[in-house]
Amino acid sequence: MGIAHDNINVTGQIRLNPAHAVDPKPWLDINALGFYIFGASNAAYLDAQGFSPLKGDVPNSLSQNLNINQVNGQIEAMVVGPSLNVSLGKFSVGISSAFRNYAVGRKIPKEFARGLLYGLRIPEYYGDTLSGDNYRAKFLSFLEVGVNGGMIIHQKGNNVLSLGVNLKYNLGIGGLSFLADNFTYSMQDSINANVLNFTGKYGGSNIGFHPGTGASMDIGFIYQKKVAPSRYYKPHSPESNCKYTDYKYKIGFSILDLGFINFKGSYYREAQNASGAWPNYADTRGNNVGDIIEEIDKIFNQGITESRSKYKATLPLSFVFQYDYNFGRGLLVNGTVIYGAGLKNSFGAERASMIAITPRFEGKIFGVSTPISFNSMGRGGLGLGVRFWYLSIGTDNLAAYLINMDVYRLDVYAHIKIPIFVNPNCKKRGLGEIDWRFSDCSAPGARSSRKKLKR
């Protein structure tokens, strides 16, 4: 959230709402390279005793709060490759690329989560019957390349309405999913266990280049209330004296990652009331996803009702609402709600839901923001994002780096980008570089600046 709303960071804004591509402050925005890593959980954490990131100290494993009965977690990592967006008056076009990874856990029983964190052999549960319903664990890795376009679809008075669309081609790299309607099992001792019932789905695809392909799209709308009449306003155009007309506020809505990836040469299983012996359960290992699936197949063999070598993985579908208010002099505040539409019965990825309020200062060379956010894992954070010239860095949870505490939420991001503010056609005419602001009465589209001056 620290840089997602920055009007100088257009390629970043587009990932949250593609309509940001239209009427941008920079005529051309180029993202050379960027990354972010995010992790959060309601129960798994980095213990304060061994975590000191500024000193380079990180625990070898996560700890678990055993007072939480159902564990939720989310890990995301993304490398943003070369991307750009260029304004063509009332239209815009661009390209994007990224390598995205998601690991998701929802409503996982604490006993099962403990096994995932520390190993399946847990002596205090020997002889107990352990059961959980309606939980899921998913992993998805994929590459995406896309084109984006947008246009102003309505102008009247001070009102501007824009539409933007991202069309993306996706290359699946790998995945693994375990969806349990019911999973009941018992550990007899350190070697033997029994699965008493499993009803659900499981499957995946080995990690590799191009085992899956698919397509997706983002679509978004933005309404702006400009500070001057905008009927004749044409962004970055000599027809509008190449001036940028600021907004008093803007409201946006977008739908992200509407699409899927088809994995072939993979594994898909459905099971109904499956049961069986699970010998050497704690030593279950696999060199790849296929090995893991084959081990599970041996246990559930009698209850498998469907088996296929292909499946469809959904992308992290989400709905985003934004409100951005401009106080002038570079001071703004943003409110954003992201709803991750978790498709519970589908393989693939899910996005964590989040609400954030982000006060910020925007300048051409320097920008700073302090997002206050709260996510669906029940974890809040106060962040700090800084942009200076071509570099942006930050985190949405600053306390994790400054205070010695158990960390349930951690993230960091950095981007190198090059904004070019003036259209070359404007430079040739000696226009551009001058923004229309609240104190100016000669904005593009203002029919009578003299009347405004008299008022």
| SS strand fraction | over 45%
**Rounded average pLDDT:** 89
Order of helices and strands: HEEEEEEHEEEEEHEEEEEEEEEEHEHH
- End-to-end C-alpha gap: 40 Å
Instruction: Just name the CATH architecture.
Output: Beta Barrel
Classify the helix fraction into a percent range. under 10%
Main sheet overview: 20 strands, mixed
In the CATH scheme, the class would be: Mainly Beta
- Report the uncertain regions: 434-455
Radius of gyration from the CA trace?
Answer: 25 Å
Structural class category: mainly beta
Shape: elongated
What is the CATH fold-level name?
Answer: Porin
Task: Please work out how many helical segments DSSP would assign.
Answer: 6
Number of structural domains: 1
Strand elements, count: 22
Description:
This protein has 455 residues and is mainly beta. It has one domain: Porin. Helices cover 9% and strands 55% of the residues. The protein contains six helices and 22 strands. It has a 20-stranded mixed beta sheet that branches. Strands 2-3 form a two-stranded antiparallel sheet. The longest helix has 12 residues, at 289-300.
Question: Mind sketching the topology for me?
Answer:
Elements: H1 10-14, E1 28-41, E2 44-45, E3 63-64, E4 70-80, E5 83-88, E6 91-109, H2 110-118, E7 129-156, E8 159-187, E9 192-205, E10 212-226, E11 247-279, H3 289-300, E12 304-314, E13 318-328, E14 331-340, E15 347-348, E16 354-362, E17 366-369, E18 372-375, E19 380-382, E20 384-388, E21 391-395, H4 399-402, E22 409-420, H5 424-428, H6 449-454
Parallel strand pairs: 12-15
Antiparallel strand pairs: 1-4, 1-5, 1-22, 2-3, 4-6, 5-6, 6-7, 7-8, 8-9, 8-10, 9-11, 10-11, 11-12, 11-13, 13-14, 14-16, 16-17, 16-18, 17-20, 18-19, 20-21, 21-22
